[in-house]
Design a protein that fits this description.
Helix 5 packs parallel to helix 6. Among the domains are: 38 residues, no CATH class; 106 residues, 3-Layer(aba) Sandwich (Aspartate Aminotransferase, domain 2). 45% of the residues lie in helices and 9% in strands.
Length: 211
């Protein structure tokens, strides 16, 4: 059910050297050795195609998006909204308007906590996270629960760094309003089965507790 990062795919399958060549910064040497960059959860390095596209937009297409009726502004808006449609198609979202751009995952989590959370979560409700979460997916829920009177529940992990799914099932009740867990832990490398297990377990948990 779980996989560790070291066992995901063999390096030869990924074509590591070919991928590295697409990232200019990885041609650098640090302390006499080729650069290996592992801080992608905070700031991700850019491949050539992204660098070229950003340069092309900044140098020849840049204008305010959705704030100007002049030609350049209209064209920039079309490009911007086109990206929203591409992302929607990539992740299987039916309505591109549901795609919201933020500065990163931390901002996204806080946006949900401060908008949905403060409107729909109150005293007696529960929010579930796990022991493997980054503090960016802990602190906003701690603050929300303290402000609203909701309770923060935590899924424990085993010695292999995997969620204890039996305990997760026990935490699911009719009081559960949100389940906020990482898909891939940046600290442990654990990949959680969010597609096949979490959604079904949440529905089943509600059905069992309400029946």
């Amino acid at each position: 059910m779980f996989e560790l990062a070291s066992t995901l795919v063999a390096p030869t399958t990924l074509g590591i050297e070919e991928i590295r060549r697409d990232f200019p910064i990885l041609s650098k040497h640090v302390n006499g050795k080729p650069l290996v960059y592992l801080d992608n959860a905070a700031s991700t390095q850019k491949p050539n195609r992204v660098i070229r596209r950003v340069y092309g937009f900044d140098s020849g297409e840049y204008a305010n998006v959705r704030r100007g009726s002049y030609k350049l502004g209209t064209e920039a808006t079309i490009l911007y909204e086109g990206v929203r449609k591409k992302i929607a198609g990539f992740i299987g979202c039916e309505n591109p308007s549901e795609i919201i751009f933020t500065g990163g995952a931390t901002q996204s989590i806080n946006l949900v906590a401060h908008s949905y959370g403060r409107r729909f979560i109150g005293a007696g409700d529960e929010v579930i996270i796990s022991e493997m979460e980054h503090h960016a997916n802990i602190v906003p829920w701690q603050i929300l629960c303290r402000e609203t009177g909701a309770k923060l529940r935590v899924i424990p992990i085993n010695d292999e760094g995997e969620l204890i799914m039996e305990e997760y099932e026990k935490l699911l009740t009719s009081k559960t309003k949100l389940v906020c867990i990482t898909h891939l832990s940046n600290a442990l490398g654990t990949i959680n089965p969010v597609k096949g297990t979490s959604r079904n377990s949440l529905k089943a948990g509600f059905r069992n507790k309400l029946s």
